[in-house]
Every structure is written in C-alpha cells, then in structure tokens.
Amino acid sequence: MLLLRIAATHVRNRMRQTVVSTLGVALGVGFSVAMASLMEGSQRDFMTTLIEAIPHVEILDEQRNPAEQPATAKYDAVAFHGLRPLEDLRGIRNPTEAIASLRDWVLGDFAQRLSGQAVLRYSGQDIGMTLVGVVPRRELLVSKVREDMRAGSFEALDTTANGLVIGGKAASRLGAELGDTVTLTSANGIAKRFKIVGLFHTGITTSDEGLAYAPLKAVQILLEKPDIINSISIRLADIRQANDVAARAERQLGYKAVSWEEANEGLMEAFVVRNAIMYTVVGAILVVAGFGIFNIVSTIVHEKARDIAILKSLGFPESDIQQIFVLEGLVIGILGALAGCLLGFGLSSYLATVKFEVTTDIEMTRLPIHFSYIHYVLSCFLALFSSAIAGLIPARKAAKLNPVDIIRGAT
C-alpha cells in the first residue's frame, strides 16, 4: 500500500499530464470496443443472413470423385480413346426412399428440388431462366423465400398445378403481372404454359431476373425427368453438425453432400483475415496510447530523481523503486480503461441506434452491433499490458539510479 500511495502521489502532482494520458488510453479503449462490436456485429449479421438463405447441407446429383470407366476394370490400358458411355439421365432417383433413409437419423427439415434451364416467353419477349421445381410446403421449411415475396404467395404453388413464382425484375422486363399466363420452353423443346402466382424480390439481380419456382411435378414433366431430382436441401436443428451430417450422408447415398461451411470455405478464411486485421488495428491504437504513459512516467522519473535517491537511502530496494513507477503506469492504465469501457459502451449504444436505407426496396435498418464482455476484457487487458510496459521501461532506469550521484548533483 505504501508503494501505491507514493505512485498515486506522483501521478496526482502532475494532474494535467495524467488527465491527457488517461484520456488517450480511454479513447483507445473506447474506440477499440466500438470497432470490435461493429465488426463482430456485421460478421454475425452477415452469417445469419447467409445461413438463413442457403441450406445447411445440400446433396447434389454428382460424385465427389470421377466415376471409374467400365473399361478400366476390364482392360489394363494406359488410356482409352473413342469410348461412348451409355446415355443416362443425371439425377437422384427414388428421392422418396433417399429422404426416408436420411430422416431416420438426421434431425432437421428436408426439401427436394429439380433445377434446369428454360426460356420464359411472354408477349414476344424471351428471358433465359433457371427453373426450380419444388414441393412448396417443404421448400418453405429450408429457405426464406416467403420473406422475399412482394406479391401473391409462394403457397399458391400447392393449389395451382402449373403455378409459377418469378422475380419482380423478370416480370418487369417481360411486362407481365400477377395472374398472367406465360410459356416456358425447356432445352428439349417441350413447351408448357404457367400462371404467375407470386413475385419475389431478393435484392440479388441474378436471382430476381433469372430464377423461377414451379411445382416439382410440372418441372419434371417439362424437363422429361419423371421421379428424378437433382438436389436435396437439409436445414438442421443444430447447425454445428453440418459437416458430420454431410460426410455421413455422402457415404450413405453415394452422392456429393456439401455443408454450408464447405460451400463458403473462402468466405470463412476471409473472416479470419478480417478479424486478424481488426485486432491488429485495435492493438496499434492501444500501443499509441501507451506512448503517452511512457512519456509521463519518464518525466516523473526525471523530476523525482532526488526522491528516488532519498527512498534508496532509506533502504528501499531496487525492486520497490521499480514497482512504484510500474504502478504509476498501471494507475493511469486502469483509470483510462474504466473510462474507455464507459466510452465504448456509449459509442456502441449510439451506433446501434443509427438508421440508414440502402435502396428503396430494403426497409430501414440499423448498424449491426454485437455487445460482448469479451471486447471489454480484451481491450482492457491490452491497455493494461501497454501501460505496464510503458511504465516498466522508465522504471528500470529509475531503479538503477545511484543515490550518491543524485544527492551530489551529478544528474
């Protein structure tokens, strides 16, 4: 307590410099907390939007590794030329059986899809579309298409055999409206008439202009793929099991199964790099604040040289002298950290109330702020660490001063 009282007296005697240094630490901690809250909030918001928009696991009608050629098993040859494999419709056959086998052990919702390319025609205008055949009540369990609907309803596909849900931008390009009848033509030349029962808007141009939903049976007829699908989408009750479920489903069915983490592997790596940059910047801010502490402690060491000589003459060891000036740095750091936490909470709370509008199609939203005690603990730890280092350097110099030289006026 004696050492702490001496340190507090030194700090209090230079009140102006102490306030400036404390303010520097407070600003560093405050802005670090606000930046971390905003960065993590934006990351969590993006991940939530991503996870809601895509399946947790998707089983595709393809193999992860190329299938072995039948001739390879029969002949021992280096290479084959001119082989003509048997024509085979690509897709997952017997989807009901496949989903039933998964339902025995997977906790979640399933939706089957059949996708293909088609040309949408209305009033002499043509647009190339990706046509997705779905079972509406199942699709709504694994996707957020209901939230994107702007007119009509997605559930109308259940009651309309040849219903069609398209993007609002595609309808505008064609000049079509809700309730109009359009024609879809597959790559095989088969044409079928559909009625527009819903319009959606996702904010993604490629989807709003080139994506359409229709009942699965109607799409199977149009694409000439009866009782065939090309993907199974799974929304899990526990998203952390996505990789394990994908691996087991692939072994069980033989088709490629992709978890949401594997599908967005590059994005996960980008988040790791972004977080590293964020914490590097936070650390740099607090290091800069530490220079202010170093400056004031060094000044105190210089001014209190005679006091140091008296203390050492009274029998204070070098370790105690060093602790006094380290404590001075820590006192400033603690005061700055506490004030910085209050400032960081205030900034974060204010940023959480900021409203902005990106486009006229998107409702007013707020900045995504994530409040976490980890941000405060980490910022305070870095602040105290930099404060201790800033106080330690001049403290070691103070501990090595010779009291005889100081008293004689050698310094």
Question: What is the number of helices?
Answer: 17
> What average pLDDT do the residues reach?
82
Shape: elongated
Q: Catalogue the unreliable spans.
A: none
Task: Please indicate the percent range of residues in DSSP E strands (runs of 2 or more).
Answer: 15-25%
Q: Radius of gyration in whole Å, from Cα?
A: 34 Å
Q: Give the terminus-to-terminus CA distance.
A: 29 Å
Portion of residues within helices: 55-70%
Tally the beta strands: 14
Q: Describe the strand arrangement of the main beta sheet, using strand numbers.
A: 3-4-9-6-8-7
Quick one: biggest sheet? 6 strands, mixed, barrel
Membrane topology: Multi-pass membrane protein
Protein name: Lipoprotein-releasing system transmembrane protein LolE
InterPro entries: ABC3_permease_C (IPR003838), Lipoprotein-release_system (IPR051447), MacB_PCD (IPR025857)
Keywords: Cell membrane, Lipoprotein, Membrane, Transmembrane, Transmembrane helix
Give a quick rundown of the structure.
Belongs to the ABC-4 integral membrane protein family. LolC/E subfamily. This protein has helices at residues 2-13, 15-53, 70-74, 95-103, 136-142, 145-148, 156-159, 168-174, 205-210, 216-222, 242-253, 260-263, 265-303, 305-313, 318-353, 373-399, 403-407, and strands at 57-60, 92-93, 108-122, 125-134, 149-152, 163-167, 181-186, 191-200, 211-215, 228-229, 231-236, 257-259, 355-356, 365-366. The chain is of the alpha+beta class and 411 residues long.
